[in-house]
Amino acid sequence: MLKQYETVFIATPVLSDTQMKDAVAKYTDLIKANGGEVVYEEDWGLKQLAYSIQHKTSGFYYLIEFKAEPEFVATLETQYRRDERILRYLTVALDKNAAAYAEKRRNNKANAQAAPAPAVEEEAPKAEEETVTEE
């Protein structure tokens, strides 16, 4: 039975864009090769770390939501540990409430990107009309 998981990893900041895409492709391909299904991916970009890890003060954050067999998580985390590009990782199983929240968050994000907020035109304040009387 496939369970839904969410994994976030932090990659070293010295990677180029293509190297980062290669790292992400490695893990998404690993999930798919082991009978899993990638539900959602999100690149959080380069962020500052709260404390230095391996003498690095920033890192590329990436989120992957996927469905897989429970035994696969150990394989995925072993691959994270072996990859020198990965500074930290966290994989959690989503219960039904967390999965529903994640889906709602994905839909809200998709709606926000699909239909950007309409530009609000500021109206110039109307000057009070003065009545001029001729004397």
Task: Write up what this structure looks like.
- This protein has one domain (3-114): Ribosomal protein S6/Translation elongation factor EF1B (Alpha-Beta Plaits), CATH 3.30.70.60.
- The longest helix is centred in the last third of the chain and has 19 residues, at 96-114.
- By secondary structure, it is of the alpha+beta class.
- It has helices at residues 17-33, 72-82, 96-114, and strands spanning 3-11, 37-53, 56-68, 86-93.
- It has a 4-stranded antiparallel beta sheet with strand order 2-3-1-4, with helices on one face.
- The model has no long low-confidence stretch (mean pLDDT 86).
- The protein has 3 helices and 4 strands.
- Helix content is 35%, strand content 35%.
- State the CATH class: Alpha Beta
| Low-pLDDT segments, ≥5 res | none
N-to-C CA distance: 92 Å
CATH topology: Alpha-Beta Plaits
The CATH homologous superfamily is called Ribosomal protein S6/Translation elongation factor EF1B
Helix content: 25-40%
Number of domain modules = 1
The percent range for strand residues is: 25-35%
**Overall outline:** globular
Radius of gyration (Å): 24 Å
Q: Helices and strands: which structural class?
A: alpha+beta
Q: What is the number of helices?
A: 3
Biggest sheet statistics: 4 strands, antiparallel
Give average pLDDT, whole number: 86
CATH architecture term: 2-Layer Sandwich
Secondary structure: number of strands: 4
In the sheet with the most strands, the strands line up as 2-3-1-4
